[in-house]
Structures are given as structure tokens and as C-alpha cells.
Design goal:
With about 260 residues, the chain is α/β, with parallel strands linked by helices. The protein has 13 helices and ten strands. α1 links the parallel β2 and β3. α10 packs across α11.
Length: about 260
């Protein structure tokens, strides 16, 4: 795969995001992640997954540099697949652990939120959902996913402010479950996944799906009206202006990809 590195270790699939410096999400990465998850879910030889990034970056979120140049058909295809993938990941029945190696804003945070457990490196990193300040309308499904972990009132306030958190702050509000030193991230993630795998697989999986039943239902409720509002805002002069400024800063600082 072009954007992922997959290693199988004792029935655990280690899925490494591997696209450029910061693992920015484009259409290709979404397609590969979506296909891979479906494949793993039906593969009896794989019992669970660990999703990880690379040094200092789990994922910087959507690749705004590439997405900015998408035409109307391409950006529509991207958003439809993004929402479908999030729904599929939320409904993924096998255990999943996010090993968050660094920065994880916006789309990167969404990937982590889909998992059953989140372990993050200590350090000068950020995590959270900052779509509104970027000019991207937040779909209801993402609000439901965020509030599933941190509560509706807190998710509501954080989303409207586009608030980003340090790892310690994220731990305090329940956005992540553990903080570890970088040298312990992989071992601790594997230990957590093994804790899940020690349970009877059918009992664990059905319990997970039962407890996520309402959330899974909410993931499929994004209407055409909401999707159209996201796409309309994407092409608005105000959002395009914000995106140009962000892209200029990214490329000027050579941190875009």
C-alpha cells in the first residue's frame, strides 16, 4: 500500500500511517484504510489492530494542500468516503488501539476517536478537533463521536472554539486514556490490545457493538443536506481564504507534508 505499512505480529495487525512527514490524509489514504479495515474484519487470523503514526506525528489531519486543488467531483468523493470510513471504523468489531506518537489534530484526532483505547506520547504535541476555525463545517456524526468520549457539553464547546489540547490536557478530559514516554508507546499499546484479546472474542465483540449501537446509528445519519452544506462552505470565499493562509504557512515553514 502506498500510504500504509502493515505488520502482523501474533494475530495483531500494526497499521502504520506512512504518508510524507506528517501523515496528512488524502483520498488515497482513506481508500486504503477503508479497504484494509474491511479485509481485517473478515480475516480470522487477525484478532485486533494497533493504529500508529511516525515520529512526532500520528496524523496532521486532512491534507489541505492537496484537497485545496481537488475539483468539485473529487472533493465530494473525498467527503463521502471520509464519512463512510468513519462509520465503518466506529462499527469495526475487533479491538483497536491508537498509538498516538505525536500531533493529532482534526482528521488525525478523528482516527484516534474511532479506536477503543488511545495512548499518546508525552511531549509538546496537540490533539483535538479544530475544523471550525479552518472553515470546515462539523458534521453531526463527528460531534456524536467526540461527545461519546468526552460528553456532549464539553464536545459542543470545544468544537465551536476549535480547541486543541496538550497531551496532559487531553488525558484530563478523557480524550486520551494514557500518557507514556515515547520508548514505551508500542509495548504499552500491545499490552492493552492483548488485554482485550484475552477475552472471549465473540463476547467482547458483541459487547462492543452493543455499547456502540447508538453511536453506530448516528454515524449513518449525515444527511445530503449536511453534506451539501459542507461542500458549499468548502468553496465559499471565506473558507478558501482561510485555506490559502494555512497552506501558505505550511509551505513556507516546509511542514505541509
Amino acid at each position: 500500500m502506498e500510504t500504509l505499512k502493515v505488520t502482523i505480529n501474533e494475530r495483531m495487525a500494526l497499521i502504520g500511517l506512512d504518508r510524507g512527514k506528517s501523515n496528512a490524509i488524502n483520498l488515497k489514504m482513506l481508500q486504503e484504510l477503508n479497504t484494509l479495515l474491511k479485509s481485517i474484519e473478515s480475516d480470522d487470523s487477525i484478532a485486533g489492530i494497533i493504529l500508529h503514526g511516525k515520529e512526532r506525528f500520528f496524523s496532521s489531519g486532512l491534507d489541505l494542500i492537496e484537497l485545496f486543488d481537488y475539483n468539485e467531483k473529487e472533493i465530494q468523493e473525498f467527503w463521502i468516503l471520509f464519512l463512510e470510513f468513519v462509520k465503518n471504523f466506529v462499527g469495526f468489531k475487533k479491538p483497536s488501539v491508537a498509538a498516538i506518537s505525536g500531533h493529532s489534530p482534526a482528521g488525525g484526532c478523528v482516527l484516534a476517536l474511532c479506536c477503543d483505547y488511545r495512548i499518546m506520547n508525552e511531549g509538546d504535541f496537540i490533539i483535538g478537533l479544530n475544523e471550525v476555525p479552518v472553515g470546515i463545517i462539523v458534521p453531526d456524526s463527528i460531534f456524536h463521536l467526540y461527545s461519546f468520549w468526552i460528553g456532549q457539553a464539553r464536545a459542543y464547546r470545544n468544537l465551536l472554539e476549535g480547541k486543541l489540547f496538550s497531551p496532559q490536557q487531553a488525558l484530563e478530559i478523557g480524550l486520551i486514556d494514557e500518557l507514556v514516554s515515547p520508548d514505551k508507546l508500542r509495548s504499552r499499546s500491545e499490552k492493552q490490545l492483548l488485554l482485550y484479546l484475552q477475552q472471549d472474542a465473540n463476547t467482547w465483540q458483541q459487547s462492543k457493538l452493543n455499547m456502540r449501537n447508538d453511536l453506530i446509528s448516528q454515524m449513518g445519519n449525515t444527511s445530503d443536506e449536511i453534506l451539501n452544506s459542507i461542500l458549499k462552505q468548502w468553496w465559499s470565499p471565506s473558507t478558501r481564504s482561510i485555506l490559502r493562509t494555512i497552506i501558505s504557512n505550511l509551505t513556507g515553514n516546509k511542514n505541509g507534508r
